[in-house]
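Quick one:
INPUT:
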């Protein structure tokens, strides 16, 4: 199906998530600006579905939110006794067994895990609020381009909860343990200048330039051969858990594969 006003193919459009594809670039858009793209279990399932629906030709995935905010985080309706239609409320989930509660959270996390697949590079285009689950969704991506009005915050701890949507690992990797603890425990806002200085943001631009900056970055990423980017991403992602010598060995093995492919000697 093709949108009548663009060349983008609409692959998915449900529960506050729209996935469109144009050649090698896919765009995932959060589509509930009236609620500042607040998140729910249905939205998380739609995000996971979007990841499974990516055509094999896609190399870049851009994540954005409609309206003035990227995502204001979890919809507080989840904590009301009635919850969402057709969904257990979080209060109901709390009464379930440890195994059932663990399985439910693991399912929610699937919306956040696929963004770091080795075969794609993901870019979060963030403006306005990116709070709680919104912050963690931005952190799930490989790269973040942010508008000058961005406001990151991890509010879970302030609400008596913990960040559980995959955000703790990338946050510590980007800003270090001490700053990550301070950001989470205080729930304070991180604005554009600090985000860029600490590595949370790769680039800060005026809000009017956000879409163009993301397009330029996607174009630059597409200029390198796909397999070289895939191998490089895998090398860099594994570097933190490998010893120095193991990383050298991984570099040698990856380069051997690339040289053989370039020479036409690959499998």
């Amino acid at each position: 199906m093709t949108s009548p006003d663009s060349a983008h193919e609409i692959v998915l459009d449900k529960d506050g998530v729209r996935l469109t594809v144009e050649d090698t670039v896919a765009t995932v858009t959060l589509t509930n600006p009236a609620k500042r793209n607040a998140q729910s279990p249905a939205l998380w399932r739609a995000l996971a579905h979007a990841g499974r629906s990516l055509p094999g030709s896609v190399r870049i995935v851009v994540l954005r939110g409609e309206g003035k905010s990227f995502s204001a985080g979890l919809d507080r309706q989840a904590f009301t006794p009635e919850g969402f239609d057709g969904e257990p409320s979080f209060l109901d989930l709390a009464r379930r067994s440890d195994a059932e509660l663990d399985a439910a959270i693991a399912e929610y996390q699937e919306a956040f895990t696929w963004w770091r697949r080795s075969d794609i590079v993901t870019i979060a285009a963030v403006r306005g609020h990116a709070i709680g689950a919104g912050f963690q969704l931005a952190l799930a991506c490989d790269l973040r381009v942010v508008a000058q009005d961005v406001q990151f915050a991890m509010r879970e701890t302030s609400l008596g909860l913990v960040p559980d949507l995959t955000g703790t690992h990338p946050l510590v990797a980007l800003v270090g343990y001490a700053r990550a603890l301070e950001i989470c425990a205080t729930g304070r806002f991180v604005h554009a200048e600090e985000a860029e200085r600490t590595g949370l943001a790769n680039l800060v631009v005026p809000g009017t330039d956000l879409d163009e900056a993301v397009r330029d970055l996607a174009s630059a990423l597409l200029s390198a051969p796909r397999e070289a980017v895939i191998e490089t991403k895998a090398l860099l992602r594994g570097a933190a858990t490998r010893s120095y010598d193991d990383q050298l060995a991984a570099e040698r093995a990856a380069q051997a594969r690339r040289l053989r492919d370039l020479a036409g000697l690959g499998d």
